[in-house]
Amino acid sequence: MLSVTVAQASSQAPRLNLVMRQKLQASQHLLGALVTSRWGELERQSLVLQRVTLDPAWAVLAEPEYARQTKAYVTALDSLVEAARRRDLEAAPQAYAAVTMSCVQCHRFVARRRLARGLQEPAHD
Ligand code: HEC
Questions:
Q1: Proportion of the chain above pLDDT 90, given as a percent
Q2: For site-directed labelling of 92, which of 50, 59, 73, 119 has its Cα 20 to 30 A away?
């Protein structure tokens, strides 16, 4: 009973790819900003990462669990934005780690759904 509506592959795929590419770029800038204490950049890139979740193409799975994973990700980014605004050297790396965990956890969830539906997994190993 999986209510999976993978973004209607044909129409949504290019948009989804764009969103995911923006996400990857912003996340790469994030680490650079963190380790060099560029707080304005850290805040900006965190906000970019939050904004991508508002794109309709983000809603890949119509499942409560996907919404929950998205919320965990947005919340972790809230903490990172806050830490950047306070220029908090302790909280910023912790929030960054929490953001990274939320990336990994959602990806694991999406991969499990893929398996459950018997779809081909992209070759990762
Ligand atoms: C709430 C779920 C969710 C979160 C959180 C999330 N992603 Fe994703 N991500 C996806 C989905 C869904 C796709 C595209 C579907 C697919 O092909 O598996 C994707 C695709 C990607 C891709 C492209 C992968 C490929 O094979 O082309 C990258 C890179 C990526 N995400 C990085 C990240 C990073 C970095 C973070 C954290 C900053 C993150 N994601 C957070 C759901 C998420």
A1: 76
A2: 59
